[in-house]
Amino acid sequence: MSLLSFVKEAGEKLIDLLTPGNANASEQLKEHVAKVGLGNPNVQTTVEGDKVTVTGEVATQEEKEKILLALGNIAGVASVDDQITVSGPAIAAARFVVVKKGDTLSAISLAVYGNANQYNKIFEANKPMLSHPDKIYPGQTLRIPE
User: Fold this and answer.
1) Are 125 and 108 in contact (CB under 8 A)?
2) How far, in Å, are 5, 61, 105 from residue 124 at the CA level?
3) How confident is the model at residue 1 (pLDDT cuts 50, 70, 90)?
4) How far apart are CA 141 and CA 146, in angstroms?
5) What is the pLDDT of residues 5-46, one digit of tens each?
6) What tens digit of pLDDT does each residue of 40-85 get?
7) Cα–Cα distance, 122 to 144 (Å, whole number)
8) C-alpha closest to that of 128 among 5, 50, 57, 34
9) What domain count does the chain have?
10) Which residues contact 146 (CB under 8 A, 6 or more apart)?
11) Does 19 share its domain with 66?
12) Residue 53 in contact with residue 35, Cβ under 8 Å?
């Protein structure tokens, strides 16, 4: 369980998500997770200011990380309080990297793996949130598998 930080000004804009008193914020977040292609996981969310808290249980560490990224890569979200448990086998958590202006998946791959041609590994690790290797943006947080 941890608190992950995100670039508050970056990410997909969900109308009224962070409006104080938004009774539908939790439902909007579940819809967003489903919309990015992660299905309907057994998680619950609450929003307090610019922090999202997520609880529940998922089958794999990868699923957990993708849900955390889907919730954190929303404009206005500064942090995600991870309270998700993993029912499957314990594996090492992936690293995370924040995309900087001018970054490409190849450049990130070169920096983390020493080989620009490993960009597809990063792309696959961030599917379905990424639809194309060229569609990343500054401030976005990505999973970097070992």
Assistant:
1) no
2) 23, 15, 11
3) low
4) 16
5) 998 888 888 877 777 778 888 888 988 999 888 988 889 999
6) 888 999 999 899 999 999 999 999 999 999 999 999 899 999 999 9
7) 6
8) 34
9) 2
10) 92, 94, 95
11) yes
12) no
8 and 57: one domain? yes
Same domain, 22 and 57: yes
CATH number assigned to the domain comprising residue 132 = 3.10.350.10
Same structural domain for residues 99 and 74?
no
Host domain of residue 31:
2-86
Q: How far is CA 111 from CA 103, 115, 128, in A?
A: 10, 8, 23
* Structure-token pair, residue 142: 């990505």
Read off the tokens for 136.
């990343």
Predicted TM-score of the model (pTM) = 0.88
DSSP one-letter string for 69-129? HHHHSBTT--EEEEEEEE-S---PPPEEEEPPTT--HHHHHHHHHS-GGGHHHHHHHTTTT
